[in-house]
Design brief:
The protein is of the alpha/beta class. It is built from 11 helices and 9 strands. The chain has a single domain, classed as Vaccinia Virus protein VP39 (Rossmann fold, 3-Layer(aba) Sandwich), CATH 3.40.50. It starts with a helix and ends with a strand.
Length: 244
């Protein structure tokens, strides 16, 4: 039975579109975790993906699924014969690499710690993905060359974020898309964080404050979804922006 459940969990279905997203399997997540210091493992949400509580696992994957849906919808708005160029900034385990590779011509995976992402790229043969440190991205990604930037649960780790948002602006094409997911840092988020086993620091910024700073940096909101529900029940915000 556990093997059957693991196989089912590898494929996540977004019922809003009837599309499936490939999940990183449990055994590969365990191997990733063994390569990382505890703080890096926790911030990549690996314990949440592996949690014995199904509700915790659902929440961890749900934010990824919604971000993937926003990504697919953004691809539909793009013009041109070739696929988009995508940057996954703060890519972590590379959980969105497979989804991005289905549509993109090129995917930049950017992070300070790339061990887990490199393992996934090698295991899955993701030839479109090029892994870069933030410094390498500054030097090697041309200006006005990226159609979509994904920043899933990374901006809350960066303070101040203005230089990062300026980097996004400079690399995006005119009218390019920025997709982010952010923790609310509310009471339910903090309870969930403790249930998932995280004991590290809380983030200095939250979804609301980061959202305002993104708008101030020259982006406009296109859509937003709160997970699992609006208002005080929201634990994460997933937001799509377009460069003004």
């Amino acid at each position: 039975m556990p093997a059957i459940l693991d196989a089912v969990e590898e494929m996540s279905v977004d019922t809003s579109l009837g599309l499936s997203m490939r999940r990183i399997p449990r055994d590969l997540l365990v191997r990733m975790a063994k390569k990382l210091p505890r703080e890096d493992r926790d911030e990549m949400a690996i314990p949440s993906y592996l949690h014995r509580n199904p509700a915790m696992r659902w929440m961890a994957w749900r934010r990824v699924e919604v971000t993937a849906r926003f990504f697919r919808d953004s691809c539909k708005t793009l013009k041109g014969e070739s696929g988009p160029t995508v940057m996954d900034f703060g890519c972590g385990t590379g959980v969105l690499f497979d989804e991005a590779s289905k549509f993109a011509e090129r995917v930049y995976g950017v992070d300070v710690v790339l061990d887990s992402a490199r393992l996934l790229v090698d295991e899955w043969g993701l030839e479109k993905v090029k892994l870069l440190s933030p410094e390498q991205a500054e030097n090697h990604v041309p200006e006005n060359s990226v159609d979509i930037i994904i920043a899933a649960e990374v901006l809350e780790h960066i303070e101040p974020i203005e230089s990062t948002l300026a980097f996004f602006r400079s690399r995006l094409k005119p009218g390019g898309n920025l997709l982010v997911s952010l923790p609310t840092e509310g009471m339910l988020y903090r309870i969930g964080r403790r249930l998932a086993g995280f004991r590290g620091h809380y983030h200095l910024s939250n979804a609301s404050s980061i959202h305002r700073r993104i708008l101030d940096a020259g982006f406009r909101e296109v859509r937003m979804e709160r997970i699992p529900a609006p208002g005080p029940l929201a634990i994460y915000w997933v937001i799509g922006y377009r460069l003004r």
